């Protein structure tokens, strides 16, 4: 009997290649978010207008402008008199007719709560004599740029009822009292110090009876 020879072997299935690997993808990283610093408020201008001599209560008119502020308040001797005022505006506070000096200020507040302030000094002199009062009707100051240690400042002003006028810087007399026109334009003697601080320039108008009135302006780098 013939036996049919069965050929041995293994059947191979269809060959498979390994799947190509996917390129690795780095996770995306968002840039760090930075919060801008809060805006710092500043008082750009602050003026105080009042009569030095008085026989009755003294109304003090104040006006101001500011930047980056949300509200303002007016203070007298570090006590708030009026609050919730606009960042640019004016107000009137009343002082007793008693010989004294008072600190009149404005405080501006930003949305962040940051504050800035400027303070002027008001001198009040009780005068019982019924004499006519001089007045400073207008005062504008035009500061220049620092030259060495001082900043030249020119002022233009008008007065009525005065026989003599003079400048004061931070409450002290500067220059002579007989050198200035009663109305016109003049340089503030010696200018304003370039020391990184704000300074109060005032024009005082007086008559022969010793009565006087003044207006003041802020000059220099303002307080923050």
Overview features:
globular; mainly beta; 7-stranded antiparallel β-sheet; Immunoglobulin-like; 5-stranded mixed β-sheet; 224 residues
In sequence order, what are the helices and strands, one letter per element?
EEEEEEEEEEEEEEEEE
Number of helices: 0
Which architecture of the largest domain would the CATH scheme give at its second level?
A: Sandwich
Extended strand count:
17
In CATH terms, the superfamily of the largest domain is Immunoglobulins
Radius of gyration: 37 Å
Q: Strand order within the widest sheet?
A: 6-3-1-17-16-12-13
Structural class by sheet pairing and helices: mainly beta
| Percentage beta strand | over 45%
Show unreliable segments. Answer: 1-12
CATH domain class name of the largest domain: Mainly Beta
* CATH fold-type name of the largest domain: Immunoglobulin-like
Task: Outline the biggest β-sheet.
Answer: 7 strands, antiparallel
Question: Could you walk me through the main structural features you see in this protein, from its secondary elements to its overall organization?
Answer:
With 224 residues, this protein is mostly beta strands. It has two domains: 39-130, Immunoglobulins (Immunoglobulin-like); 131-224, Immunoglobulin-like. The protein contains no helices and 17 strands. The protein has a seven-stranded antiparallel beta sheet with strand order 6-3-1-17-16-12-13, with no helix packed on it. Strands 2-8-7-4-5 form a five-stranded mixed beta sheet, with no helix packed on it. It has a three-stranded antiparallel beta sheet with strand order 9-11-14, with no helix packed on it. A hairpin with a 2-residue loop joins strand 4 (71-76) and strand 5 (79-85). It is globular, with a radius of gyration of 37 Å. The termini are far apart.
């Amino acid at each position: 009997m013939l036996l049919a020879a069965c050929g041995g072997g293994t059947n191979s299935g269809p060959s498979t290649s390994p799947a190509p690997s996917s390129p690795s993808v780095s996770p995306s990283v968002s840039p760090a978010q930075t919060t801008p610093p809060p805006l710092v408020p500043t008082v750009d201008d602050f003026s105080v207008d009042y009569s030095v001599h008085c026989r009755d209560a003294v109304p003090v008119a104040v006006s101001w402008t500011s930047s980056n502020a949300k509200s303002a308040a007016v203070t007298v001797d570090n006590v708030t008199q009026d609050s919730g005022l606009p960042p640019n505006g004016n107000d009137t506070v009343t002082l007793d007719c008693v010989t004294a000096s008072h600190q009149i200020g404005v405080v501006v507040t930003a949305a962040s709560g940051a504050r800035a302030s400027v303070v002027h000094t008001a001198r009040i002199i009780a005068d019982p004599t019924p004499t006519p009062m001089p007045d400073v009707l207008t005062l504008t100051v035009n500061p220049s740029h620092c030259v060495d240690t001082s900043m030249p400042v020119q002022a233009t002003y008008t007065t009525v009822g005065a026989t003599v006028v003079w400048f004061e810087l931070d409450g002290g007399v500067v220059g002579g009292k007989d050198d200035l026109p009663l109305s016109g334009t003049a340089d503030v003697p010696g200018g304003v110090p370039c020391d990184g601080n704000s300074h109060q320039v005032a024009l005082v108008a007086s008559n022969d009876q010793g009565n006087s009135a003044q207006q003041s302006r802020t000059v220099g780098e303002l307080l923050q």
